[in-house]
Amino acid sequence: MKENYLGVDVCTFNYEQISTSILNDIENDKKSFIVAINPEKIMKARKDKELLTLLNNADYQIPDGIGVVVASKLKGGKIKERVTGIDLMMHLCKVCESNGKSIFLYGGKPGVAETAKDKLIKDFPSIRIVGVIDGYEQDQEYIKEKINNANPDIIFVALGSPKQENWILENMNTSSPSIYQGVGGSFDVIAGNIDRAPEFLQKFGLEWFYRLLKEPWRWKRQILLPKFLIAVLTSRN
Ligand code: UDP
To answer: What is the SS3 assignment for 156?
Structure first.
């Protein structure tokens, strides 16, 4: 069920398998933490033990970056496709809609989670979105109380990385939701503030190329990919 790249666990499940497992976790009142894994995070975790522990403590480490899929291919692993944070979020919204489970949106600039909520209701008319809070609210007590009063099954946390992962770890044991997913900039995408790459680029694993054209300052992050693949190829496990 898990593979390991340079010390970091990655879940081999596809969207359907994770969605089924998450629904099972909700039914059994099991707390779970979903974190997105990409080569950048793995390379960072090699030098940052705290980050490494944080990533490996999650229940589902999804192969969000194409580099992780390539690494699995090179090592004869089972991961065949990306499981992106935003697509998994959409799958989980569908699962929640079909099974009467509720969700909460926490993060993004003021107003963004509200707009994302409206868009989600358009896509999933029976979905139960029981609350939203923007990611710049400072009052942690207020945040906690609002989430606990709403009592959602799943909370999507969009504070960027590693802020969202740290927030989840600090709060998951004492908050009411079962499932915690860190979703980065996904509320911006759902709200329509940021475009995703055209589908054909996504299909060919070239979303990184589109982001590079749109946000050229990302090249420093992307140059890590070849370094990552060489490190995986020369590693023993
Ligand atoms: N954000 C937030 N609170 C903060 C810092 C960031 O809500 O204190 C939000 C920001 O508005 C954006 C998201 O977090 O919607 C970060 O998106 P990004 O694409 O940078 O995430 P990453 O690449 O780290 O996954």
So the answer is: strand
pLDDT digits (tens, 9 = 90+) for 112-161: 999 999 999 999 999 999 999 999 999 999 999 999 999 999 999 999 99
Q: 145 — phi, psi (to 5°)?
A: -65, -40
Q: How far apart are CA 23 and CA 70, in angstroms?
A: 29
Q: Which atom of ligand 1 is nearest to the CA of 161?
A: 24
**H or E element: which one contains 170?**
helix 163-171
Q: Are 27 and 179 in contact (CB under 8 A)?
A: no
Sheet strands (E) in 12-116: 32-37, 60-63, 102-107
SS3 131: strand
- Cα separation, 68 vs 232, in Å, equals 10
The predicted model scores a pTM of 0.93
128-133/102-107 β-pairing: parallel
**Residue 94 beta carbon below 6 angstroms from any ligand 1 atom:** no
Residue of 163, 187, 218 best suited for mutating to test ligand 1, as the one with most atoms within 8 Å of CB:
163
Q: How far apart are CA 150 and CA 223, in angstroms?
A: 42
160 within ligand 1 shell (Cβ under 6 A): yes
223 CB contacts (<8 Å, ≥6 apart)? Answer: none
**Atom from ligand 1 closest to the CA of residue 136:** 3
Residue 190 tokens, joined: 């759902």
Are 32 and 193 in contact by the 8 Å Cβ rule? The answer is no
